[in-house]
UniProtKB/TrEMBL annotation:
Biased composition (Basic residues): 138-151
The name this protein goes by in its record: Uncharacterized protein
Domain of life assignment: Eukaryota
Source organism: Citrus clementina (Clementine)
Region: Disordered, residue numbers: 108-151
GO terms, molecular function: mRNA binding
């Protein structure tokens, strides 16, 4: 009898999981920017510059900076959101969540760029310093420290 209930529950779970009520995620690669492609790339370049200059930004902060910059071709905040989605689909931006408790902030940021050669030289210098073995510690110094602190 108990096994029959388990089968029923698992069947209900499968039906719920595979039901048509679940919607697939939007394919951001197929977002229509609602402007000609060349103009879309021009707007995207301006938005990319704003986000790169001012760091990770929320949509509302991005809109404030975009209005101040006077980006031509950007019609409204809704159009800017569509452009940000289009840019994410083109791997120009990434969206991440900064959640603190029940409050969530979604921030747009630029993807990391190619590492520079001057940045690559620094870890090799650190590696050379790590290869040296530290001086061996003597037991006498450890005993003296224990006597000073009463351990």
């Amino acid at each position: 009898m108990w096994l029959g209930n388990v089968k029923v529950l698992s069947m209900e779970t499968l039906v719920r999981y595979y039901s048509s009520s679940r919607k697939a995620a939007v394919n951001v690669r197929k977002i229509n920017p609602k402007v000609p492609t060349q103009q879309a790339y021009s707007i995207a370049q301006s938005l990319y510059g704003i986000i790169k200059q001012h760091g990770p930004l929320t949509v509302s902060n991005t809109w404030i900076h975009a209005k101040d910059a006077g980006i031509s071709g950007l019609n409204s905040k809704t159009h800017m959101k569509i452009m940000l989605k289009w840019m994410r689909g083109r791997k120009m931006l990434k969206l991440f969540c900064n959640g603190v408790g029940s409050n969530k902030k979604f921030l747009h940021s630029t993807l990391p760029e190619e590492p520079r050669t001057d940045q690559l030289e620094i870890p090799s210098e650190v590696k050379l310093q790590d290869e040296r073995s530290p001086a061996p510690k003597t037991g006498k110094k450890l005993k003296d420290k224990k006597m000073k602190f009463g351990c």
